[in-house]
Specification:
By secondary structure, the chain is of the alpha+beta class. The chain is 53% helix and 16% strand. Helix 2 (20-49) runs antiparallel to helix 12.
């Protein structure tokens, strides 16, 4: 063992510069795993530890509608039977807010109102800007708490008055931090008012859109038991029940899944670095064959020599892991605070579990990828010093090398399962890596063979560059694999992003309205249209909006008579927004059946149904509905039966007046249903202040009508999409950096071959320019091959993700892929030239003397 330790130290000291690339590969992968796992663990500890503060209560009972007296009575009866320690309420809705006395900027803003009763919240707190503790009494006299951003936007200060829901409220303070969880997407800044004050406005009247929440405090040991009793007693159509413990479990589960999947990304980066480790080890073994033969002549056994180099690789892997931890620590310092603040995380740092796991995975991957080339050490014979041709025997495969390969593959699959936290996911990832690697290797060999005819070219640099591509011991396949994988990942992410943006632009692009008006009452339609007329380019489209749920569907291919059958099959469970009209819209096309030509004039259809319905093709296909089938709906407690008369194709991207899955035929039964109207507005292009003027007019005359700025919502969604895409692209860029590192290492490690070849060429009269041309052609061809393979893989990846994950139309991105091939070819060529500068300028005499 002393001999092994001494030799490992001497070998490492003598060749540390050559092996620098070895632990850089390990460092990159370890750093990726540690950063990703540490970030998720920091967020998980904060969120799971504060789950009760996020919910604000032990149990919440949430309804997506303003509860009527009957529904509230049933709910109160159930809650009283269960028992609780304390109870409070909260109602959330949206409306417009504007200055009450003309002060400030005069801007009108859509806000999310959170109206709270005394006792809110039971846990956690609402932090105020001036340091005062949260108290319900601060909202007395129609007080209102707002965010600092809203004050700046409206140009107001604390104490100023605003109009909200047709009533005057006073800004009583500024909320600096609010940790109580928001349910759903936010359409504007959040403001707090007293629940009793909100009930005095028309916002919670007929047709109002609001979410009612009852918050309960119960004994700690009875939280889950009480929640389960409530879930069994309360219909899901009435309200949903959840506890803070279920939120904690869900957060922990989701974050664990996110952590495992992100770790798989880091594992993929580490595997890419492992390819570099394998390349380095293989070249080191080839360079050390004579030294190994000498050691064996002096009495060293194959086990001692193998142990020496294996220990050397483990030491280097440990050093690489340490560097990776350092890089991860530095990276954590640059995590933007804007990313952490919404999650309530003030600071992040490396976690012990992430560091230990990243280090172990780095050591395992380095050991596994080093094992196969190191097994060749036992094949080196002392006779090699006398007969150089025996060197070829060292590269023959025997049962030991095959066994080592099997062990390595099995161990990598096990590590992938460990990182994924799921044997199925780990198996899929491993199979994908093996399939992509095998495809790249096979395609690389095929393409190398395809360019062999160029070896007969009369152009000297081209001829010898092609010959060099197939030279034994060259790193062609390694470079193709590494750079091809990195290129595939980055281009694939960009192609997916392009398809997502195209689909997004199609759905909400130039044909989208500028503003959407919601909660227009039936007697306000004409007034709203008149108020909007001076500020629009054409009359607004105002259509009925009926909210309801499907309670049954029966026909030739489907039999779902009740809500329970629908829930069991997983179909049509959500609440739908429906409309009623007498003709097809411009963005609709009739596929099957007949569309009515006017309203229904009789109380029922000839078949005895309340009305007729036309359904969108995707829903029809999913459920199996056809013209002639029957559907039943529940709308605000009222039952409605309808016969399916047609199936429509809706071009969602061209909709200027919204898109609807269900369109009802107007008639007496439909007119009696509770309904509001929704309006779609295109602002006048010649009025710069058209939006502000229209909003002020609506707030003054119709305070219950909310205005949604579609452009503002789209900008928010685009920002989220850009951030997600940037994060994924950065991960892909890390993968590409790994490929570039492997490229640099492969070129540097084959320098001992290139030095002798360049010396021969220079002796025979080749100039530095000629040698540079040979290197440039070789690496340009290599980069073009890697880019082409990567672009092909990226096209397949984007197609699979678009069609089977995002379920959006796929379109090729030839410009992006062609640009990726060109950039990859140029990058590989430049890196190859820079890495070969020493070979190009070194004098041949010193090289020939040493040989």
């Amino acid at each position: 063992m002393t001999f092994v330790l001494r030799m490992a130290w001497r070998e490492t000291r003598a060749s540390w510069a050559r092996l620098l690339f070895f632990f850089l590969c390990v460092a990159l992968g370890v750093g990726s795993i540690v950063v990703l796992r540490s970030l998720v663990e920091n967020v998980r500890v904060t969120l799971v530890g504060e789950a009760r503060q996020l919910v604000g209560a032990d149990i919440v009972v949430r309804s997506r509608q303003v509860l009527d007296s009957d529904a509230r009575a049933r709910l109160d009866e159930t809650l009283s039977a269960v028992g609780y320690l304390a109870r409070t309420e909260m109602v959330e809705t949206q409306t417009m807010v504007v200055s009450a006395d003309g002060r400030g900027t005069g801007a009108t803003r859509l806000v999310e109102i959170r109206a709270v009763a005394p006792g809110f919240p039971f846990y956690g707190t609402i932090e105020l800007d001036d340091g005062r503790p949260w108290a319900q009494g601060l909202l007395a006299g129609r007080g209102m708490f707002v965010t600092r951003a809203l004050l700046v936007e409206l140009g107001l200060t604390v104490g100023d008055a605003v109009r909200l829901g047709g009533e005057t409220f006073r800004i009583a303070g500024v909320v600096s931090r609010d940790r109580v969880q928001r349910d759903g997407f936010a359409f504007g800044p959040r403001v707090y008012v007293a629940l009793d004050d909100l009930r005095e406005t028309p916002l919670l009247g007929f047709g109002g859109r609001a979410t009612s929440t009852i918050m309960l405090q119960v004994a700690p040991e009875a939280v889950e038991e009480t929640a389960e009793v409530l879930r069994g007693a309360i219909s899901r159509d009435l309200a949903l029940v959840r506890s803070w413990r279920s939120v904690e479990d869900r957060l922990g589960r989701n974050l664990t899944i996110a952590e495992n999947h992100l770790s798989l990304v880091g594992f993929a980066v580490l595997v890419l670095g492992g390819i570099g480790v394998w390349s380095v080890t293989r070249i080191v073994v080839q360079q050390k064959i004579r030294s190994i033969a000498i050691l064996k002549c002096l009495g060293a056994t194959s086990r001692q020599v193998l142990s020496t180099y294996l220990l050397q690789m483990l030491v280097l892997a440990a050093a690489g892991s340490a560097i990776g931890l350092g890089l991860a620590a530095i990276a954590m310092l640059f995590v933007p605070s804007s990313l952490l603040e919404p999650l309530g995380v003030s600071r992040v740092g490396l976690t012990l579990s992430a560091a230990v796991q990243g280090t172990l995975v780095g050591l395992l991957v380095a050991l596994l990828f080093s094992l196969v080339p190191l097994v060749e050490v036992r094949r080196v014979k002392p006779l090699l010093l006398l007969r150089a041709d025996t060197a070829q025997t060292a590269r023959r495969r025997d049962r030991y090398s095959v066994g080592a390969t099997v062990v390595v593959v099995a161990a990598l699959v096990a590590v992938a399962m460990w990182q994924a936290g799921s044997w199925r996911t780990g198996l899929y990832v491993s199979a994908g890596l093996v399939a992509v690697g095998w495809a790249l290797t096979l395609a690389g060999r095929t393409l190398v063979r395809a360019v062999r005819p160029l070896a007969r070219s009369r152009h000297f640099p081209l001829r010898h560059a092609v010959v060099s591509l197939g030279r034994p011991g060259n790193q062609t396949n390694v470079i193709l694999l590494a750079v091809g994988l990195g290129c595939c990942f980055v281009l694939g992410v960009r192609a997916i992003q392009s398809n997502l943006l195209d689909e997004f632009a199609m759905q909400v692009g130039g044909e989208a309205p500028d503003l959407v008006l919601i909660d227009i009452q039936s007697d306000q339609v004409e007034g709203v249209a008149a108020a909007a007329a001076p500020h629009v380019s054409r009359p607004p489209v105002i259509v009925p909006l009926i909210r309801g749920r499907v309670t049954g569907a029966e026909g030739r291919q489907v039999r779902l008579p009740t809500r329970e059958h629908l829930r069991r099959e997983g179909h049509l469970l959500r609440e739908y927004g429906m409309t009623a009209r007498g003709a097809l819209a411009d963005n609709e096309q009739l596929l099957r059946g007949e569309f009515w030509t006017g309203p229904l004039t009789t109380p029922t259809t000839p078949e005895g149904f309340d009305t007729e319905v036309s359904i969108e093709q995707d829903v029809a296909t999913e459920v199996g509905l056809e013209p002639g089938d029957v559907m039943r709906f529940e709308i605000a407690g009222r039952r409605l039966s309808a016969r399916v008369t047609s199936v429509r194709q809706v071009v969602w991207g061209e909709s200027q007046s919204g898109g609807f899955v269900f369109v009802l035929r107007p008639g007496p039964a439909v007119e009696r249903l509770p309904q509001t109207h929704i309006g779609f507005v295109e602002l006048a292009r010649d009025q710069p202040d058209a939006q502000g003027l229209l909003q002020r007019a609506l707030v003054a005359s119709f305070p219950n009508v909310s205005v949604v700025d579609v452009g503002d919502v789209l900008r928010s969604i685009r920002a989220i999409l850009d951030n997600v895409t940037l994060a994924v692209t950065l991960v892909g860029a890390v993968t590409l950096v790994g490929g570039v590192l492997i490229l640099v290492g492969a070129v540097a490690l084959t320098k001992f071959q290139r030095l002798y070849e360049a010396a021969i060429y220079r002796t025979l009269g080749a100039s530095t320019r000629l040698l540079a041309a040979m290197v440039a052609i070789e690496y340009t061809v290599l980069g073009a091959l890697a880019g082409t393979l990567g672009a092909a893989g990226a096209m397949g990846l984007s197609w699979a993700m678009s069609r089977h994950v995002f379920e959006i139309p796929w379109s090729p991105t030839p410009g992006l892929l062609a640009g990726g091939v060109i950039i990859t070819a140029l990058a590989v060529s430049v890196v190859g030239l820079i890495s070969s500068l020493d070979v190009l300028v070194r004098k041949p005499l010193a090289t020939l003397r040493r040989e």
